[in-house]
Amino acid sequence: MNEDFDKFEQDLIHKYVYSRVIRFVAIIGFLIGAGMVFIANSASDKPINPDMEINVPGLVCSSCAIGVKKYLKKEINVKYVAFNITKQLVLVDFVERDGNVFYLKNDKIIALVKKAGYEVKSIKRLDNKKPSRYNKP
Q1: Which residues contact 78 (CB under 8 A, 6 or more apart)?
Q2: What pTM, to 2 d.p., does this model score?
Q3: Residue range 51-62, pLDDT digits in tens
Q4: Element (H, E) at 80
Q5: How confident is the model at residue 2 (pLDDT cuts 50, 70, 90)?
Q6: CA angle, 101 as apex, 133 and 39 as ends, to 5°?
Q7: What's the confidence (pLDDT) of residue 20?
Q8: In sequence order, what DSSP letters do the residues of 58-106 get, joined into one string?
Q9: Closest C-alpha among 109, 105, 91 to residue 51
Q10: What is the number of other CB atoms lying within 10 angstroms of the CB of residue 56?
Q11: CA proximity to 41, closest of 75, 79, 67
Q12: Over 50: is that where the pLDDT of 108 sits?
């Protein structure tokens, strides 16, 4: 009878340890997957040639940028949104047709960024593609 109890106790310990290991591996897998989704969503779809630069103070991490991107991408005129976190810039590429860029009005951009919880310091249209002191590489 004592042998049966020892075998039962060992089986119970093995099941407990096995379930803990499985749970740990599942949590690690979930965190890695969530991190990859976060990175994929924070990266721009492709390198863009922006039509507008929006300076947004406080835009210091990818999490902040995702909120701003969410509101800007809802607009039909916005094709792509990218970020330069170090310079706190939102780079927006608008829809173009027949050589005309369909910009959003500044008031609309300010309202969308404000909806995301940030303020706009400046907005610069990049329709003049000639190099200047401001956009010099």
Answers
A1: 72, 92, 93, 94, 95, 104
A2: 0.59
A3: 889 999 988 888
A4: strand 78-84
A5: low
A6: 75
A7: 83
A8: T--SHHHHHHHHHHHHTSTTEEEEEEETTTTEEEEEE-EETTEE-PPPH
A9: 91
A10: 21
A11: 67
A12: yes
N-term to C-term CA, the chain: 82
Structure token pair of residue 127: 């329709």
* Main-chain phi, psi angles of 106, to 5 degrees: -60, -40
Tokens at 85, concatenated:
């976190």
**CA 15 to the chain's CA centroid:** 41
Pairwise pLDDT comparison (135 vs 2), residue with the higher score: 2
Residue type at 40 in one-letter notation: A
Place of tokens 């976060």: 38
Are the beta carbons of 82 and 48 closer than 8 angstroms?
A: yes
Contact 126, 51 (CB under 8 A): yes
- Which letter does DSSP use for residue 74 in this model? T
Structure tokens at 41: 């969503």
Model pLDDT for residues 41-99, shown as the tens digit of each residue: 555 545 678 888 999 998 888 887 888 888 998 888 888 888 888 888 999 988 888 87
**Position 127: which residue type?**
D
